[in-house]
Amino acid sequence: MANRNTKGRLVVVSNRVALPRQTATGGLASALQAALHELGGLWFGWSGKLAAETGAEVHRLHDAKVDYATIDLSRADHDDFYTGFANGTLWPMLHYRPDLVDYQRSHLEGYLRVNEIFAQHLCKLITPEDVLWVHDYHLIPLAAMLRQRGVRNRIGFFLHTPLPAAGLLIALPNHRELLETLASYDLIGVHTTRDLRALEDYFLHEAGASMRLGGRMRSAGGRIFRAAAFPISIDTAGIARTASDAGAHKEINQLRTSLDGRALIIGVDRLDYSKGLPQRFEAFARLLERAPELHRQVTFMQIAPPSRGSVLEYRQIRRELERSAGHINGKYATPDWAPLRYINKSFPHRLLAGYYRTARVGLVTPLRDGMNLVAKEYVASQNPDDPGVLILSRFAGAAQELTTALLVNPADTEEVADALQRALNMPLPERRDRWRAMMKVLEHNDITFWRKSFLSALTEKAPVAQRRVAE
Ligand code: GDG
């Protein structure tokens, strides 16, 4: 197995590879960087660059215990595979937004083409003992394509997004052709038991699979595979240390000084429609409208680094938020106070941790989210003597674990405004009790626990049902 057998390596495959010394802004990248640095192995994927031809050469790099192998994409493949099918079709579908799904057969063809090129290269990079761990919705058919080329290695898949109910999945044209290929993996990991139920339901009722002893499934094609929930997490102790050291950074002091004693509410999200940002801004406006006593007493800082600018909906939501932020500040700002600081930039993790710790309230209200690592990072960053309050969407996977957060329906702006008011007024003993309960969960289920749970389920023969987590 990857972490015991000296011959076999861990081979991680994902669309984007976070090369050494690059700042990782996605949750997936943060999590995998930590896992590979500890274990060593190979990370294969797209370089993030465009070239005349997809995969004409493999770029290699070695750093610490990790080998990196990346390929470039052609403009046409990038448009069809990444912008088109992965982010224009699958992402909205997986986030319960069939209204935003743009399905074009040419995009699906591009998606399959790029997966084939990934498979061709991977075959040459792996040895029979390697354990492969493929990540996310960009690479669903990869194992099936590797199996067609005779690859018999253990291959695991982890889906970082939610998985909607079968009734919604079947709206995806040719869904069975695509989703059935998941049976070529030995183990499919999802974040929560809700996602797991959706996956099992899809396979059993739409794809002709049957359930076997020990939680295994038998696909219509006769392949035995397993699925289980592994809620992804963070480097809890590391983030807590970073946050506690952050007080020494001048940027953190600058933020504190600029607040001038006002309570800070913080939001940190990729600029994505799944994160519920327009609704969040509206809830904050609602709070200001109904609680004039909070004027000049509270500041909301929303950090939202732009992402996927090649997809139309992402450009549209950016414009919508600019309008809404301007409206809120125009209506409520005074010469010495702007209620909303809206920042389209990304910051290094050491500063983010300090910003989280400075904030009295962490506002995490996605409409749907596989897990949401920001919620967990906010909790881990708090000062144990004077912790802040997490407001968390019920529709983030993290809500299944962080049950003592103030849980809200993000679409209900009145409920979110209520929660903001309650959080800003919450007495210290209640803040401490709620925080301690969440921190306990994160100290147990950290990133190392997540990685070990997945890899031991992938490499050991024990029935996966015995090692389910987050039941
Ligand atoms: C996907 C799923 C799932 C954000 N801004 C900056 C920055 N970040 C980092 C955060 C956090 C990560 O990006 C975001 O992770 P999330 O989990 O919140 O969200 P997604 O990017 O949508 O991640 C999600 C995750 O994969 C893992 O499976 O939880 O549901 O959608 O780590 O800190 N990092 C830096 N500067 C920023 O400005 N350096």
From TrEMBL:
Pfam families: Glyco_transf_20 (PF00982). It catalyses: D-glucose 6-phosphate + UDP-alpha-D-glucose = alpha,alpha-trehalose 6-phosphate + UDP + H(+). The keyword Glycosyltransferase applies. Gene3D superfamilies: Glycogen Phosphorylase B. Keywords: Glycosyltransferase, Transferase. Pathway: Glycan biosynthesis; trehalose biosynthesis. Homotetramer. This is Trehalose-6-phosphate synthase. The gene is otsA.
